[in-house]
From TrEMBL:
Alphabetical GO biological process terms: cell redox homeostasis; cellular response to oxidative stress; glutathione metabolic process
Record protein name field: thioredoxin-disulfide reductase (NADPH)
FAD/NAD(P)-binding domain mapped to chain residues: 137-482
Residue ranges of every copy of the Pyridine nucleotide-disulphide oxidoreductase dimerisation domain listed in the record: 504-614
Signal peptide: none
Membrane-crossing segments per the record: none
Any single Pfam family the record assigns to this protein: Pyr_redox_dim
Amino acid sequence: MAGVPKVLHISGYQSCGFYVRALGVLRSLALLFPTRLKVVPHEFSDRASFRSWLLDDDGGFRNTFTRDIRAREQVTAPFVWFAPSDDGHDVEDFLGGHDDTLAWCREFMSPRDEIKPNYPVADMMDDGYTKDHGYDYDLVVIGGGSGGMAAAKEAAVLGAKVACLDFVKPSPAGTTWGLGGTCVNVGCIPKKLFHIGSLLHESVRKDTPSFGIRLGEPNGASATDELSGIVPDPSTQMRWELVRENIQNYIRGLNFKYRVRLREKEVTYFNKLAKFTDKHTIEAVDKKGRSSLITAARFLVAVGGRPSPLSCEGAEHAISSDDVFAMEKCPGKTLCVGASYISLECAGFLAGMGLDVTVAVRSILLRGFDRECADKIGDYMVDHGVRFKRDVIPSKLEKIETGQTKVLFSDGTEEVYDTVLAAVGRMADTDKLGLESVGVETNPKNRRIIGKFEQTHCPNIYAIGDVLDKTPELTPVAIQAGLYLARRLFGGDKEAMDYQNVCTTVFTPIEYACVGLSEEDAVAKYGQNNIEVYHREFVPLEWSLSMSRSHNAAYTKVIVDKSPQENVLGIHYVGPNAGEVMQGYGTSMKQGLTLKTLTDTVGIHPTSSEEIVTLSITKSSGEDAAAGGC
């Protein structure tokens, strides 16, 4: 674990030059890297006392290393070994003498060790791969999303013969898209672009008057209205059809670039639907129904997931996030069903465009995220114009003569909407892959593939991304897992994907980013009495002139354990540009961040990120979390 040093023991006598030299090098490393190395010397006054300790006491200390012939043959100083405690007992491993110790020090200081300390090593099953396997391909990747393409290209760069299959099955509403997977086509990219547009629209309406900006006025025109609270030309609006077309054109450009990049890396691309017939063979079916067989030594499943439908009567009248970004007509009055980040993000940018939006919430917002931060998002969204129907689910959807959808809710109320968007979860898109025929197990709750180190129970079949059970459903996670897996399979690496302390951001009208544990998870893991929470509310400088923002505040919290090191367990930030703010803190968390390191960091002034490194108010103190000025 990061922050837990190796304990290295070295024994010798004061007049031995080899012992003195080795001890000096080790102490220098321990001084430079105190979280990674601790050195415990066992020093004797002369050679005779050292040899007595080593050899003469009932067979000698060295004979505790019964499995290491080198240890039992070592008779000179220094004698160096690893043990978990300062007394040197419970020996873990024998390192050697002077030369072996200096060689270990050189390896310890190598650039690779510095860049990636304490990363997990993948202990994988032998999948039977040989270079003369006789199959069509070394690797076939099923799924052309971000993770699948990353793995395919990296494997090809490493010399593998690779094919990638991608086939988009139309959504129930008939929406389809091109190469690139969910993120590019119906996820992160269009969502963020709509989100940016809605923030710009909101800023024009709320903030520009306070900065003296008058849209539509000739340059130099006098403004007779008050600066505070003025709304520019009320005709200022986002045109759905225009922004939708611009975003779709951008995405089509990405689709083309992905095809080109696969070709550049000499990855064979098939626009075909795959199904396993045995562990080395898939049946590939194109859009005209023509089938062929493709064989490979190894397969990688990276098909991602698809939205779960509503379970009520008339569910077919709802659309999903697979459909909303491609709608040719403005969604109009919209009901978003669910309190997931997808539902809240869609509700947020639709409301930011000036639409009438309601969110139907069965229980809580953003399950799995920090509760306090999730509630602050809900409060902000209400102020943003989003309405919430709490403790309800749709019990029936009915299409009416106007083309709208009438929704009957579980509390007996009903309302008519132009669009109903279902965002109640996602399921892995694995049900038609034939995985059961090759012994690949899936979680019955979400159809996600069960595996370890991205390897399934069928050793030559692997899985990454949203399709792999108990891993974060995030595009960068899929990409990195794909790269690491390709390097292990074809590059000789052993490094495993580290799924801990991964940053994520929710692009709601007020953004929320976090890394590490939520406060609830920290309490559950360490106990309420063993953690402390530092927190602060503040008004971001960019909001400070706007009267319409005067009652809004950003918020940050840092959760630490009460050990002497005060290790940081989680960082949370609710406010503008949350993803940009959090990324650097994610790097620090990977290195074993402590509260002292965090608060010793000089902030960039005046920024919102600065608030995180200047935290001083604890929840246990009961002090007001609202911050003062500079």
